[in-house]
Amino acid sequence: MASKKTKLKFKAGEFIVYPSHGVGKIVDIEEQEIAGMTLELYVIDFEKDKMRLRVPTNKSEQIGMRKLSGKDMIGEALKVLKGKPKVKRTMWSRRAQEYEAKINSGDIVFVAEVVRDLFRSERQPEQSYSERQLYEAALARMAREVAAVKKVDEKTATEDIVKVLDAAAQKAEAAAAEKAEASGKAA
Question: How many CB atoms lie within 10 A of CB 60?
Answer without folding.
Answer: 21
